[in-house]
Amino acid sequence: MSFRSPLILLALLALPMLVALYRRAQLRRRVEAAAFATAALEPSVAPRRPGWRRHLPMAAALLALAALVVAAAKPQRTVAVPVEHASVMLATDVSGSMTATDVRPSRLAAAKEAAHRFVRGVPTRIGIGVLAFNKTATVLQSPTRDHATVQAAIDGMRPSGGTATGDAILAATRTLRSAVSGGTRRPPSAIVLLSDGKSDLGSDPIAAARAARRLRIPVYTVALGTAHGTITVPRPGGGVQTKTVPPDPAALARIASESGGKSFTAATAAGLKDVYDRLGSQISHRKAKRQVTAAFAGGALAFLLLGAAMSLRWFGRLI
Q1: pTM of this prediction?
Q2: Residue 55, CB-side half-sphere exposure with 13 Å CA sphere
Q3: Interior/surface letters 142-155, b for 16+ CB within 10 angstroms, e for the rest
Q4: What is the pLDDT, as a whole number, of residue 278?
Q5: Which CATH class for the 84-283 domain?
Q6: Which terminus of the chain has a smaller tally of CB atoms within 10 A, N or C?
Q7: Residues of the chain with CATH 3.40.50.410
Q8: How far is CA 71 from CA 115, 195, 248, in A?
Q9: CB within 8 Å of 172: residues ≥ 6 apart
Q10: In which residue ranges of the chain is pLDDT below 70?
Q11: What is residue 40's predicted lDDT score, i.e. its pLDDT?
Q12: Which uninterrupted H or E stretch holds 251?
């Protein structure tokens, strides 16, 4: 909860003064009553005394006043609202390590299925692009609202080669910068980057992430795989050998942090689907402040009516 005019809340400091004045008036009333009749005669003069009910109408009035002061300060709360337009680049690592089967049926197959799920869950007002990267970064589909085309581009990804994460971020950023929606103003943009290993080629990914941040394009990273993932590669002298290909969540987390995004990890296909579901919800909504003045003003009116009703019912007068 925040306030557009917080200084108005200083008026709440007057409430303790009003309580003190009310208490003083009640003490004076007791003194006047004692002067009119002795303590022994009070039960005969006033056999039915209101007791604690006497103070309830005034308490309701004070609560109403407090609610009115808060309403005047224009309270507002942060809510998630759907974005009208946005562009997202799905940058997926298609290096040779994505053939590892520690994530069933393989890392790339699980990534493609999660990407399909992401596209199905994102509203059609969100433009989605597809980028595959290994030793180079290739834009398979520029951001579009034709999600069927996006699905086809995802299906076209094939694994091979090394990992140029920095080049992928730079290519995705260039593509998003050129995206427009209904004019010349670029819509809110984000990159969802999935990788399973360290960047071993191309541009510095940290510098690329900082460049994306300057353009207000956050990078949400997903580290896929387990520490025990392996692939088979050819030996220099012939034959094949088994190579361990663990993910690098620390490097991806730093990329996300430097760009203003968030990082996630997934060690299973189900976990990856959950991550993409969360990403879809985050990207298709933005945080916005909404005033809740009416709620406090309505509460003030309710307290006033309650106080007046209690006073009329018990004492035959308004507060």
Answers
A1: 0.70
A2: 8
A3: bbbeebeebbebbe
A4: 86
A5: alpha beta
A6: N
A7: 84-283
A8: 45, 49, 50
A9: 89, 91, 129, 131, 137, 139, 191, 193
A10: 29-52, 80-84, 179-186, 285-286, 318-319
A11: 53
A12: helix 249-259
